[in-house]
Design goal:
Layout (H helix, E strand, L loop, with lengths): L1 H22 L10 H15 L14 H9 L8 H27 L1 H16 L9 H15 L10 H15 L6 H14 L3 H30 L2 H14 L8 H16 L3 H15 L10 H20 L9 H20 L1 H22 L26 E5 L3 H6 L3 E2 L26 H23 L4 E5 H4 L11 H10 E7 L7 E6 L2
Helix pairs in contact: 1-5, 1-15, 2-3, 4-5, 4-6, 4-13, 4-14, 5-14, 5-15, 6-7, 7-9, 8-13, 10-17, 12-14, 13-14, 14-15
GO biological process, one term: lipopolysaccharide biosynthetic process
Protein name: Glycosyltransferase RgtA/B/C/D-like domain-containing protein
Organism: Roseateles depolymerans
Length: 515
Amino acid sequence: MRWALLVLLATLLGVALLAKLEFGGRGDLPMQLDELYFATCAARGLVSGEVPVAGCHDNKGPLIFLLYQSVMDPAHPYRLATIKLAGFTLGGLVCLLGGLVAHRVGGRVAAVLTLALALQSSTLDPWFFSLRTESLGLACLLLATLVLLPRGTQPLAWWRVLLAGVLCGLALLTRQNFLFLVLGIAGWLAFTQRGGLHRLALLALLFGTGVLAPMLAFALIFQLQGTLPEYGASLFIYPALYGSNGDEGVIRRLLLKLALLAEYAQPLSAYVALGVLGATALARRVVPVEADALPAARLVLVLAGMSLVFLVLVPVLLRPHLWPSLLLAAVLAGPLLARGLAQHEWRMPVVALLLALVVLTVLCAWGGPQGNPLRDRKNLQAPQIAEARGGYAYVVGMWPKIYVDNGWTPASTVMYPIALPGAPQTWAFKPPEAGSWKARLLTQLREHNERQLLADFARTPPRAIVTIDRDARRPDSSDATDIPVLRDYIAVHCVPGRRLDEDTPYAASLFICGR
């Protein structure tokens, strides 16, 4: 145990160095750009009295916005130190939960080593400690796993299955793609529980009821708020359109995604290899597992496999999507490394390997090979708009940093161009085929959103509107925006300002409104 604790202590030193970097020299930068998207949407909900907020017409469920609203100061909603602290806390909780799952499989030493490995792999890239949907959903799924793995060999109590279902339902309200892991848990329940068809049907009913309960509870809240359409769109319609801008065939898209996955995983190859070795050792019983720990080992193997399905089938693959697989790789590797520490001839090589990984993660935390472009200040600068500082504003496009740097609150919850008629095709969105069910739903939703946008502008008029060229209009258009409702509003209520960030991806036009 003392060698495992030594590795954990060294790992905690690496986490401390990353924290010093993030709260010190990088204190004015987000750990990941999505933090600013979530923060601006949550800020809009706080000022409009929508707590929780149904969403801002993105493809995310409401739970992440509720988490942001719970940690943000309404008077200073964009204080990055608060968001980073919450991200570190949530990331640490996920690693700790992974250690507890490993304890069910391989005991105390495996738990300590899993915690160390999870902290190391999350430190390797600052994205993994950012306050994102992956960490929040993974925490819910790990809690569900622990609930389903009581000590001993007694049959699962009904309340455990129901509670696990509720936790899985909460995970789905962070990322719908976690459905693959939830199906893995359901399959594990179906194939490991004994008691006949009657008991299996009861467990299925309890688990399904639990999964649906959070969704129905939020639906009731948003019905009372009058934002039920936004809730349904964020859960179902926008996810069905996200990642749709791909003209390649299915096989080519899959191959491109696998190539991208290999690129993302390259700096993490040591942890991936340890996870594969750990999975093989558990599956082939190279690592002895006690009888009452076999269900835990099997469930972890199932979840690890489904996390890979998650990576392959996610519409747009980004580096943070690797976090569930990496965490489960640490859970699988922990028992194998614990067995190595228990054998005298393997003890020093295992310790040396783990300490070398600590050094690697520390080097990467200081700007090493992960090559995260968001650490470059140039990519996160936004112009200061002295003529419209503070108050409400509206940005037509994907540029949350300009809200943050100018102290703006979004003037509407309809924040993304995809939600409005006339929005151009983007890298992640292609209008659905005319006449399809997606097109019909999107048309109805956009008509609703136009009315909602104008109602929001009437309550909280924007002092400025910024139209980002690439998101607001087609390349051959001469208008500032091709979105009719915004073009008409600008013509009546605003005057042209100046061009912003010319010759950059964020080239935009500024309009000053309400004068």
